[in-house]
């Protein structure tokens, strides 16, 4: 078993060390630590700015924590490069070409979202640049034949049925209205939930990202009078949508998925109360990640957000390869493909399509203005 540096010296010693050094990190592309004798970088690919930056921040910081800990006593101090896609499939191709052209980049933590993953995947595959996404969940990403693609969490073929089970078995909802945001992620997930709910679906609708007036959708929902609404999409739209649904008279359950699991959703205030959020992301209260959560809080002054722990695991796989002396993409890809070690979120092992061998989906509830874990959806 490889030594996990998060826990090696104890949380108290670690917190002190992290407060004194932050080697190998960068706030902008092309800058950062490392030493003259080791020109190797790991890269984050996803939203650092823009409407979805709230979901990118924990991923950035989770990977940063792993790199900081590696660099504390490493002969090869790894640089950290960030490619800010703003979560946009339109921005992804050019950024992927830039990342692929930087020969020092030996692995990508990301891409963060499904749409940008689809847009960038061919470029990474052609460059032989291994990627491990801690957050992109569209199932079809694994069907593109990219030998560089890996996913550190369960996809929506597991999250969608889990959400449908929760709606039927726990909420006891006999009628459901399904809404999606037309994104690769949101539409794909909503389609899976709709299929699994079958005859319980009393209506569907599609909105658009950056839309702010949902009156037409609200009318369709209130006319259908469902027990629950499922929304496949991101928190920016969900925050507005739930407010307008409540104002329009909908008083049933609002069920969303991991794209909404961000503190910004709580800006909806009282309207967000009772919302159910599903996510293939381990709660930071789980004993398996308790020490990680303490270390993360010590470095960043806040609790780890959605997919911070999964990003830490993704970065740690690449760092384990570097510790083994790997200094090129070809060998790193083989290392990642063959990897089989216990991480902090799960056993980290990939099948021949890059999917994880160990998958879990959890439920969360918005309660008293906070996102509270309920437990794993079995």
TrEMBL record:
InterPro entries according to UniProt: Leu-bd, Peripla_BP_I
Phylogenetic classification of the source organism: Bacteria, Bacillati, Actinomycetota, Actinomycetes, Propionibacteriales
UniProt protein name: Branched-chain amino acid ABC transporter substrate-binding protein
SUPFAM superfamilies: Periplasmic binding protein-like I
Domain Leucine-binding protein: 42-369
Species in which this protein is naturally found: Nocardioides daeguensis
Family to which the UniProt record says this protein belongs: Belongs to the leucine-binding protein family.
Pfam families: Peripla_BP_6
Keywords assigned by UniProt, alphabetized: Signal
